[in-house]
Amino acid sequence: MIDGKKVLFSGMQATGNLTLGNYLGALKNWLTLSDEYECFYSVVDEHSITVRQDPAELRRRARNLLTLYIAAGLDPKKNCIYYQSHVSAHAELAWILNCYTYMGELNRMTQFKDKAAKHADNINAGLFTYPVLMAADILLYQADVVPVGIDQMQHLELTRNLAERFNNIYGNVFTVPEAYIGKVGAKIASLQDPSKKMSKSDENVNGSIYLMDDPDTIMRKCKRAVTDCEAHICYRDEQPGLKNLINIYSACTGKTPEETVLEFEGRGYGEFKIAVGEAVISVLKPLQDEFARLSKDKAYIDSIIKENAEKANYYANKTLRKVQKKVGFPERIR
Ligand code: ATP
Ligand code: LTN
């Protein structure tokens, strides 16, 4: 609790260009929850280097991502928006938690297996212990809730287990967090292969709508989305491409999938795809305009980066000092 409010923590990696999946699965829920909670939204640049990055490019993407959080509507005066690498407590707590995490637990992580397969030439120890750094992110702020897409559930479970394990040994040190998974946007699929998640690292650019795609590109990708030959608008697993478009439309308009089906009953896929394109454009256009405006305001963004890093450091260090004491590190002499 901070000032009587429950705490929320979430983060995104500054790798690749954000997709509509990132927006609907994560960022959009951040916006709805931000009034109710004391929120920390991190650009997790330390996680990004588990995969080799070009330094200048990483720095540029990290700044763009931080700006995008604000452009999406998160007020940086109320929400703590900051770079993970500006708060050294993340790496310090991750080290401690590494010593309480079993190899077997990390071996089971599907994201590790996927990424290791994709980057077979660089299966580094950081990639393996990535979930421990994520647990440190969350536990440092004593977060009650963590809004993420469904793909992060396994990491969240590990975080809960680590918190409980630690608390069992040392007393009540960490809040055990809950995942928050949105109802319709939790798993947006690729527009070209609905069996895969829409991903920023997909080499088929037509499968993903990027947050910075212009309206024509968005419309073209929606029109080309893979559907089926049933020619009947239904929300069911047997029509996965269509189901995905219904999810996208519903998440963008705030309707339920059932309402969307009723709205388009008896109409053709072509017409529906155009409506999906329009709904996506109407969500992304204001975000893009605001991003362009904010990107020009260097002094403002710099001031946010500085102020929020101070705030994040304050809360993170509070937890870190407590943990250091519990595990037996010597007290600091002042
Ligand atoms: P990569 O493709 O590089 O693995 P990613 O697109 O999965 O990256 P992350 O930075 O790992 O993106 O995820 C940021 C947030 O977006 C997480 O909360 C994740 O669960 C969510 N997310 C990512 N892709 C989707 C998707 N297709 N549908 C819903 N949520 C998603
Ligand atoms: N692992 C997440 C990004 C991430 C995160 C976090 C999300 C790192 N630390 C803490 C929520 C809370 C991902 O790959 N999407």
Question: What distance lies between the first and last C-alpha atoms, to the nearest angstrom?
Answer: 28 Å
Task: Give the ordered list of helices and strands.
Answer: EHEHHEHHHHEHEHHHHH
Overall pLDDT level? 95
Helix content: 40-55%
The largest beta-sheet arranges its strands as 1-2-3
Beta strand %: 5-15%
Radius of gyration: 21 Å
Number of helices: 13
**Major pleated sheet:** 3 strands, parallel
Number of strands: 5
Low-confidence parts lasting 5 or more residues at pLDDT below 50? none
What does it look like?
The protein is mostly helical. 54% of the residues lie in helices and 7% in strands. It contains 13 helices and 5 strands. The strands form 2 sheets. Strands 1-2-3 form a 3-stranded parallel β-sheet. The relative contact order is 0.15. It binds adenosine-5'-triphosphate (ATP) and L-tryptophanamide. L-tryptophanamide (LTN) binds at residues 9-13, 44, 47, 134, 137-138, 146, 148, 152, 155.
Break the fold down into its secondary structure elements and pairings:
Layout: E1 7-12, H1 20-33, E2 38-43, H2 45-48, H3 55-71, E3 80-83, H4 89-98, H5 103-107, H6 110-118, H7 125-140, E4 145-147, H8 153-170, E5 178-180, H9 215-223, H10 240-253, H11 257-264, H12 269-295, H13 298-327
Parallel strand pairs: 1-2, 2-3, 4-5
Helix pairs in contact: 3-12, 4-7, 4-13, 7-8, 9-12, 10-11, 10-12
Bound molecules: adenosine-5'-triphosphate (ATP) and L-tryptophanamide (LTN).
